[in-house]
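Attaching the record inline, Q. Sequence:
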Amino acid sequence: MFFKRTPQLQPLPDIPVWTAMDRVEPWLTSMALLSSDRLVVVDPLNQSVKLLDVVQDKVRHQLKVDDIPTSVCSLPGNRAAVILPYRNTLLIMDCENQLSIVSTITVQGKCEKVAYSNGHLIVLYEAPVKVAILHLNERVVKQKVLEISTYLFHNLLSVTTEGDVTSIFVSDFNNSSILRLDEDLQEQQVYPVPDGAEPGRVLAVGENQLLVNDFDDRLWQLDSTMGSWTHLIQRKWNICEYPMAFCHDRHVLYSGGWKGVQRFAIS
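Structure, as predicted:
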């Protein structure tokens, strides 16, 4: 796999996300890859979830949710889960050809981030920082308060399953590190970010590899088995605040933020 060496990132044309339904300039805070040609994103400023066609470079469908969505993850069956933190609610959405809400899940407090693995939702709460594992029927399987501080909701979440091992990664902004928890929410490892940089987004991409961006506008590759870091790129935009998604089939890294979705071909 190409993450075993330092890849080259070549910018591609952005995918526009502005639509006639938007009142203000779009701002994307989370994204999830549904398939090699579909990406679902949340736009809190326009209180919308958007389904993007990354082949035709357009918004295929947009659904107003009349609240502020903050996080999205993909689910099996071309579905997605979207968090509405101010309603303590998770929306389960069908994303086949257009977006529709098929069910809702009530969560126990204000959660900001969501991920999925092995039939469970993993949610990250703020103040105090807590990770919880839920069934899709709302039942809490287990939960744990983490001994890390909250700073402007910059504690971020990614989950991966390698074989029979599930790892939950949480970025710890104040302590300049990434935490790895197991499926029992026990802390297994701490990865200090090089140069004491504050971590932004963290994205598990498979084969024990993660992408981490920091508040010095750098993008890193973390090998969670070896604990080694590789500096991939440093750009002039504020990439640390932008969500990421990675497509293995197309070898494309997607990064969202203001106005549109940036794309980078990996070689």
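The chain has no helices and 24 strands. The chain has one domain: 2-266.

More tomorrow.
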